[in-house]
Write a structure and sequence with these properties.
seven-stranded antiparallel sheet; GCS2; Creatine Kinase, Chain A, domain 2; alpha+beta; 49% helix
Length: 364
Amino acid sequence: MGVEEEYLLVDAEGVPTGVAEAAVRAHEQGGGEAADEGPPGGGLEKELQEQQVETGTHPCLELDELAVEVRQGRARASAAALQADGRLVAVATSPMSGPTTLSRGARYEAMAQAYALTVREQLTSGCHVHVSVADDDEGVAVLDRIGPWLPVLLALSVNSPYWHGEDTGYSSIRSQMWNRWPTAGPTAPFRTADAYRRAVTGLVASGVALDPAMMYFDARLSPRYPTVEIRVADVCLRADDAVLVAALCRALVETASRQAVDGVPPSHDRVEPLRAATWRAARSGLGGDLLLPPFMTPVPARDAVAQMLDHLRPALVDSGDLATVQDLLARLWQRGTGADEQRAWAREGGLPAVVENAVAATIA
């Protein structure tokens, strides 16, 4: 498994600042990896906007190894940002209002032409977890079975209550803004790898996606690596929560793969309940009800997380991850989600305090 994280770059006042190109250059001049070394991700690379950068771990087998990689990635990205007169902050949307500046590149320019305001306003940061699969057949079998559980992952990761200086009332406004892309969100079962490939080809042929890399599903087959890529989560405020999300993603993939081998069918056949469950998770995070499979009925968030843990327990036991996941979950319940922490800081010192505390938490 591997984790890719997108981060915001802010100036001394906490306002988004367009220094990504300078930060990547500083990283590479300092002996960092090139962006294309070591899948998935590796190194430091720019994103759609100059106010963002992305880093990624190398593939890892153990959670301890992954935790070190996540922290190292955050530390080297933070150091590069400082060299470019910026600061790194792991929030999924900016608490402070500021402009966006499109990163240089023909693909980004084509996206801006095609998607207009959606691109200009798209300053959001996610966490993408890659989990290896044997082939596309196994990958699609996994995608067809993990969808109903992805909103619970979103609820655990929510870290974007603010948009343009305003509390939106959502715990993850990022997910709402992200779903403006025509290919974003949950998917119905594909059933076969051929059907998945036909869906991708059709979306590109329709003109609503420029290429297969613009399949912005909540979970997809990676267009670059032999992995299932789970993309539903906000970037996590704290490294511990990124490791927790990754561990749960790996267990989801393993559990779904075993179900497919055992002939257990997908628990859903329509996308509408998944969209409702995703909205519910974005709205209240862990502070309200979540919709739980197989019937997508509302249950308290704590119960939903407990039931997901029961669902994943055999895979977590077999990987040796259960105790670590239980410990990380306990810490999360104690301190709250990233959205909870941001709102607590705002009550104490306003939005500047949110940014200052989040900068520190990013590399804690």
